[in-house]
Amino acid sequence: MDSTEKDSLMDTSEPPELPEEAHHDSIAESKTQTAGEEPMPTEEPETEALPVISPDEPTPEVSSNETDQLKAPAQQLTAFQVTEIAREDISFKTTSVEQYLKGCKWAPDGTCILTNNSDNTLRIYNLPGFLYQESSSLPSEPDTIPQAVVIKEGGLIQDFCWYPQMSSMDAATCCLLSCSARCPVHLWDAFDGRLRASYSPIDRVDEVEGASSLAFAPDGQRFYCGSTHFIRLFDLGRPGRECEKRELKHHLQPSEYRQPGIVSAIAVSEANPKVYAVGSYRKSVGLYAEPDGELISLLHGHRGGITQLAFSADGTKLFSGARQDSEIICWDTRSPGRILAIMQRSVSTNQRVQFDLSRENLLFSANTSGLVTVYDLNEARGENCPMGVKKSWRASSDCVNGVSLHPSMPMVATTSGQRHFDLAGSDDEDDEPDNEDKECCLKMWWLTKETSDCDNNAQVDS
């Protein structure tokens, strides 16, 4: 593929109308990477047949038996107040295992939310009941969040994602993917938690290789599976081991065209499905083009391994976050290598700390300090100038690792928790462990438009 073809793939000359952004020419230096280690192989379990999923059929915009009664945002939010409306606390320990949440993702139709727990379990929660009531008032105390489905994985869950065409009114589309250490990728039924199908990434010694990241193509027909040095493409309708395998560090390529290491994050542009991004724990971000996965550009700028990637709705921007790295970088995909904005946050551990983008061009980010910070991408101005925080609030006394925006309502979900180590034991039997700063909790927050602009830049809690 020549440079003209690559430029045409990234051409978004007619994106949706967005405020103009000033951008600077800061380009981070490239680095030569070395190969990582292969994960331990394991045996391939049996797979089940996959029910027919027809993403070509039209799907309702909102799905549930009662979703017509759901509250909807009356207007776009650029300045807002935050109210906690629901929460679900999880005990710190079950037997001898310390529990903490590790992220959350709303279903595409907004009827439920999926969480990941350190006990190798995925849990699906329904919306609080008061959202279906005719009364427009918010509860005086946080409501409970009803748990619907529990899915137990065989190992440490590395990544999870919803089927993009998911609708609760079509049972065949209600499914999700998960990958765990040294196990096949699993397709789960979101209604009853049963295993629908398994997809086995096979390494060069004919053993199952564990996947570390997942992403669906926007049409839901295929999904990307990342492992060490490789991207695999599976057809959702063909469980088993058959897939397209793409090596990211082929020895015949010059070093500047290789992306070695564990593939820790994948994102596909909805505006231009021919382009996808790959993040590595070796700190690099690669832009690739379909149909053969040819490299467009390698981006370097993070100080830690990449943990999340996300494209803007119009496909002109790519956002990346990393572990033990306080920066979220906004890249210009029309001029790969150019940085449009840098957002500062608190990430002091190796956890995946999520961020999410709103329709109003706001970016919400979790923080290990317990805050949720909001950035207005319309205010990206100047060269090498980090963006200021538009708003923040304290969502937990512990690390906030997950944040997810509801697809149709002015609501944000957050998850909190992290592993705590007792560095010094106590000889006094009367001394109990300090749990003040430990919180393992799923919370939902309602965003209400502010009537006055005088507090737009106020910090709710610092």
- Strands of the widest sheet, in order across it, are 7-1-31-30-29
Question: What is the typical, i.e. mean, pLDDT?
Answer: 81
The outline comes out as: globular
The whole-angstrom Rg is 22 Å
pLDDT < 50 runs, ≥5 residues = 2-75, 426-433, 452-462
Task: Give the beta-strand count.
Answer: 31
Helix content range: under 10%
**Secondary-structure class:** mainly beta
Count up the helices: 1
Largest beta sheet, briefly? Answer: 5 strands, mixed
Which percent band covers the strand fraction? 35-45%
**CA-to-CA gap between the ends?**
50 Å
Report on the structure:
- This protein has 462 residues and is mainly β.
- Helices cover 2% and strands 37% of the residues.
- It is built from 1 helix and 31 strands.
- The protein has one helix spanning 3-9; strands at 80-89, 93-94, 97-98, 101-106, 112-117, 121-126, 143-144, 147-152, 157-162, 175-180, 185-189, 195-199, 213-216, 222-226, 230-235, 244-247, 263-268, 275-280, 284-289, 294-300, 306-311, 317-322, 327-332, 339-344, 355-357, 362-366, 371-376, 391-394, 400-405, 411-416, 441-449.
- The strands form 8 sheets. It has a 5-stranded mixed sheet with strand order 7-1-31-30-29, with no helix packed on it.
- A hairpin with a 2-residue loop joins strand 2 and strand 3 (97-98).
- It is globular.
